[in-house]
Structure formats: structure tokens, C-alpha cells
């Protein structure tokens, strides 16, 4: 994680596991970061949002910023001006969990002045089990739509291919093949491969991308 830019934008298609990745990524980064903020800018997905795990994150020293409206179930995009503070303060590491479609990505426009070239990363979370991103063409089209809407560039790929607790090694490796093909066409690095904890020891040692173990914080134990 240390090679990533100070401002990390996490985006991905609905159902890709973007927010689950963001929460796990933040908890890992909190172990080495002196000041860390996670801003929930996802106004698209009304079900699983990083703000729902505020207590867990704050107990790990992470500043959580979301809607200025109280209550986790509101869908009004009233984004707090508090997001500006960690973006301006260069002592902060910042993670932005962004909505996974062009409408969600467009929210980044109001913070555009902070996204100077070479001072931010925008990672695309890819789940090859999602219909919209199960082909190279689908992922390339998605990259294009997100970049056009946000006026920013994707800087890295994340293989987060999963079927929740039913995920197999074959799923992960199929996703890896997909992001490798996208990487060759786009010259984007495969920055991370994320996988549920039970499969980590079963993956090839030479798998591309830093391995991130995923604990399912956003899904309760009873959910499949």
C-alpha cells in the first residue's frame, strides 16, 4: 500500500465489492498511516456503504466522512464540506469510496482541484462475475465511461472477482486473466488482488498484484 498516492479513489461497478474492498483497504492502511480519512462519496448504492461501518473504522483511528445528513439510510447527496479538510492537509492519507457509475463518478468534479496529476490514484475494482465487467470489452468500456464522467484517469486495476462466501480459486484466477488482458491493452498495473481469507493459502505464490485479504464487514454472517 505504501506505493499508492496520498489520495486514493476507489471505484467499481455495482456489485463489484468496491466498498468491501475500501473498508478492508482502509483498515490495512490504518496500521501504517498516522492520519487517515475515508470519505464515503457513494450516492448510487443505497444498500452497502462504508459509512455503515463508521464505529469499526473510527475505533481503528480512521476519520470517516460522509453525508452531512445524519442517518445511514438517507439517499440525499448532501456531501459534507468536511471532505475538503483532509484533501487539503497533506499529512492525511485519503480514501474516497465513489459511486460505481458515471453519475456517481461525476461527484468527484466538485473536488477536482485536489486531483493533480501524479498526486492521486484511481483504482478500478473488477469483479469478473458481474455481467457488465466479465469481458475485456466490458471493462474497457467501463473505464472509458468513468474517466469521461470524472474527468480523471484510472491509474490501477484491482481483481476482486468473487461470489461472496461461495468464491473459488477458479473465480479469482479467471478474474486475474481478465485484468491481465485489460492491463496489456491499457498499460495499467494490476495493483491489488483481493480475496476472502479462506482462499489466500490456495492461490499461486506468483499471482500479480499485492494480495489483500478480505474480511466481509459489509455483509452480516447470515448473508451468503
Key features?
single chain, 224 residues, alpha/beta, Rossmann fold, 8-stranded parallel sheet, 6 helices, 21% strand, disordered C terminus
Structure description:
This protein is of the alpha/beta class and 224 residues long. The chain has a single domain (7-214), classed as 3-Layer(aba) Sandwich (Rossmann fold), CATH 3.40.50.300. 27% of the residues lie in helices and 21% in strands. The protein contains 6 helices and 8 strands, in the order E-H-E-H-E-H-E-H-E-H-E-H-E-E. The chain has helices at 18-29, 54-59, 84-88, 102-106, 136-150, 169-186, and strands at residues 7-12, 36-41, 62-65, 93-98, 120-126, 156-159, 189-196, 210-214. It has an 8-stranded parallel sheet, with helices on both faces. Helix 2 (54-59) links the parallel strand 2 and strand 3 (62-65).
List the helices and strands and how they pair.
Elements: E1 7-12, H1 18-29, E2 36-41, H2 54-59, E3 62-65, H3 84-88, E4 93-98, H4 102-106, E5 120-126, H5 136-150, E6 156-159, H6 169-186, E7 189-196, E8 210-214
Parallel strand pairs: 1-4, 1-5, 2-3, 2-4, 5-6, 6-7, 7-8
Brief sketch in words of this structure:
The protein is built from 6 helices and 8 strands. It has 224 residues and is an alpha/beta fold.
Sheet/helix structural class = alpha/beta
Strand content: 15-25%
Strand order across the largest sheet: 3-2-4-1-5-6-7-8
User: Could you report the average pLDDT, rounded to the nearest whole number?
Assistant: 85
